[in-house]
Amino acid sequence: MTADGFHIPTNLIDHLHSSEKIVVLTGAGISAESGVPTFREAKTGLWSQYDPQELATPEAFNSNPELVWKWYTWRQRLIATAYPNAGHKALVSLEEYQANQAAGFVLITQNVDGLHQRAGSRNIIELHGNIFRTRCINQCRRDEQGPGQNTFPPRCPNCNGLLRPDVVWFGENLPREALLQASLASQTCDTFFSIGTSSTVEPAKSLPYGAKQSGAVIIEINPNPTSLSHSADFSLNGPAGIILPEIISSIRRES
Ligand code: BV8
Ligand code: ZN
What we know:
The chain has 10 helices and 9 strands.
């Protein structure tokens, strides 16, 4: 099923009216309309000569912490000037719409930009951490805000070890509790949205298949096809910032 000119299929709206638990998985695409480059299209500006998958690794940090911190500082500054867009805000409305269902809404994000929190979403699982948090490589502390002092790269005030961005790098395990909660939510929902993700990164890319196996309706929102598209019940080909608000107004119009 595809949305024709962003007309949302009626049977999708009917399904959402009766849905008891909605799980949403977002990727970098939902922040694209806020001006935050997506992960694999981040061929903009200073970083076009580097492959993000090469920089977001423990090996890169161990061999060149200054370069990796320059990349993250550049991204932090870019994200700090960005604002949640209509897609982020529509997910807040969807969570509010589900409020009368106990545990009716879970937002799982691969993004590290914190834009869902700033939009007002509440039940969020950050699978890959948060770019504004730092943690000590000797694991003696984790700080919500960025590094306080002015040494570069920043060092831990406890042990003087290097501080690192509190994100999950390629080759690193995801936070155990976050992955457990995300898997459980995906396997116990009746509706699973996959929004703005190329569905290439494990283990996040497996979540919709767990939902499908448990009988959930799978809805993908992405201007481009992905490896998930052929398994989705609805594949809405367009930008999240246009399609999600249309879904919210259709739900309200027809309720
Ligand atoms: C792990 C934080 C155990 C850092 C990120 C099994 C098979 C093969 C490989 C593996 C496997 N298991 C593990 C791996 C290795 C690896 C992996 O999956 N590699 C892939 C690339 C093959 N996974 C890991 O290493 C994970 N760890 O599994 O631990 C382990 C350990 C060792 C060995 C084996 C197993 C850790 C992965 C986490 C990496 N960290 N981010 C940082 O951000 O700096 S991942 C990074 O990619 C971002 O978080 C990003 O969100 C995420 C996924 O990318 P997307 O979000 O999908 O973004 P992308 O740019 O790709 O796509 C954007 C999409 O948006 C596009 O489709 C576009 O069309 C769409 N779009 C554009 N505009 C819009 C839009 N959509 C809607 N609206 C729009 N307007
Ligand atoms: Zn320390």
